[in-house]
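Researcher: Let's do a round of design. I'm pasting the structure tokens now; please hold your answer until I've finished.
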């Protein structure tokens, strides 16, 4: 009887540990704005399970070559989130499914991010008419962030002297097509926004 209990206890231990081997995720984070590896970025990995708060299970910093390595227990979960953070850079938030993490093969995940820049759109129609209508549509530029220039048609009405500031990827293009309704005045305004700085686009109409 004692032998049976011992065997059951050992089986239970192995069952509890199943799927919990140490695994390592490694890779490189690249700065696409400056075309160099991103050093000293904070890399975090969270275990994500429905109905439970996200659990931070490992954290490190990238080295001078942009390399990172995270080792953690492969506990059963739905998926993992890898987050990269650094001042004046856009955060990364990547999802890796549990089934994609191997305990036998290398888990290599390389990522890229960009430096933050700002584009300042200056619209000046100080000598216009109250009936004037300007329509503009973003052609190039960052999307999907809280302070990104909206996609789709935008309108300004009447006499205008205003500025709008938006995020853009550093050292990447930003452009918009504009039309002054009811006139032949139309065109494309474009610039490359300097990383870590604000770049102006002026439109007088």
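Researcher: That's everything. Go ahead.
Model: Designed sequence:
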């Amino acid at each position: 009887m004692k032998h049976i209990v011992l065997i059951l206890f050992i089986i239970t231990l192995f069952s509890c540990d199943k799927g919990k081997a140490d695994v390592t995720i490694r890779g490189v984070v690249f700065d696409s704005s400056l075309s160099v590896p991103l050093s000293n970025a904070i890399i975090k990995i969270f275990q994500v399970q429905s109905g439970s708060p996200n659990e931070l299970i490992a954290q490190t910093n990238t080295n001078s070559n942009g390399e990172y390595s995270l080792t953690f227990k492969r506990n059963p979960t739905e998926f993992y989130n890898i987050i990269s953070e650094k001042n004046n850079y856009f955060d990364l938030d990547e999802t890796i499914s549990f089934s994609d993490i191997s305990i036998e093969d290398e888990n290599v995940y390389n990522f890229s991010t960009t430096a933050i820049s700002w584009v300042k759109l200056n619209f000046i129609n100080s000598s216009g008419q109250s009936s004037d209508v300007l329509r503009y549509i973003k052609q190039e530029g960052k999307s999907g962030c809280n302070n990104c220039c909206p996609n789709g048609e935008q309108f300004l009405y009447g006499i205008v002297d205003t500025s709008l500031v938006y995020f853009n990827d550093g050292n990447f293009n930003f452009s918009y097509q504009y039309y002054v309704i009811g006139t032949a005045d139309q065109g494309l305004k474009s610039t490359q926004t300097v990383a870590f700085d604000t770049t102006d686009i002026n439109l007088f109409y």
